[in-house]
Amino acid sequence: xxxKKTTAAVAxxxxxxxxxxxxxxxxxKQETTSGGSNAGVADTPKMTVAMITHQAPGDTFWDIIRKxxxxxxxxxxxxxxxxxxxxxxxxxxxxxxAIDKKVDGxxxxxxxxxxxxxxxxxxxxxxxxxTMFNAGGNDALGLGAIGxxxxxxxxxxxxxxxxxxxxxxxxILCVIQEQGQQQLEDRCDGVIKGAEGAKVSRLYVNGRDDSxxxxxxxxxxxxxxxxxxxxxLGAPFALDAVKSVQQAxxxxxxxxxxxxxxxxxxxxxxxxxxxxxxxxxxxxxxxxDALWLYNTNGNTIGGGENVATGPAFIDASNVxxxxxFAANGTR
Length: 331
Prior knowledge:
By secondary structure, this protein is an alpha/beta fold. The chain folds into 2 domains: 8-151 and 280-310, Response regulator (Rossmann fold); 153-277, Rossmann fold, CATH 3.40.50. It contains 11 helices and 12 strands. Strands 2-1-3-4-5-11 form a 6-stranded parallel β-sheet, sandwiched between helices. It has a 6-stranded mixed β-sheet with strand order 7-6-8-9-10-12, with helices on both faces. It starts with 7 loop residues before the first helix and ends with a helix.
């Protein structure tokens, strides 16, 4: 269930985040980086936080996550050690490596609790505070995390399904770019619930190969011309879908989860109808800042509940308000 309440801590953290200049970064497997500028650095002892995600190569969504994390690290005098692997078993190994380094905190995504749960519990047992974000919200607090920052994926899917049906959608193709990740399945499950009365089918594609994504969606649209909506689960794949629709001669509309600069431009141009924004910059920022607050003052954000960072719809009615932030790479 999406938590509607907000906390003063969240509001303060967001205000601080937006006042900082976010530094740019690029995704990459097991890449390490330090936080951004040192303007306004906290007068607290230097600490190291490991951020470990299931980022796949080429997915620009994670650049926004990292900018938020780096902004918090810069403010909090934190050395941010970022690593990633879309293979859950290897991601668990990265968590163990962070435990072995005796870092001061771990911020982690959990797309597969069966594979990652034991490693997360091991970090907690070792006395390392853990925050979770983006994926794994249903299991986070049970695993011992001090907080979770993200959106309810099933509920966001319900919202997407309702919106599509309200705009006349009758045959929806839900495109999943990475098999084995529960949050992606939850999104499509939510679409089925929200689009009650409409046909919803899944299409699994290789999200690490844009040309393969385009070809797969195009083939499906050609096979079934009655598909009137394509719902992507990430901004790069929505942009692939734009090409697919054009090449298939389809009239299908396109919606998506998540944003990037190019996707916001596609909404402005009318090529994509809407995006669901879970505010990844805020997720990265809060996941790191919450560890600093906990280590320096024993604070927790959320009062024992998950902190919702979304979902919110971006479409033609409000895209201009988002565009200036997207141009900075923070939305």
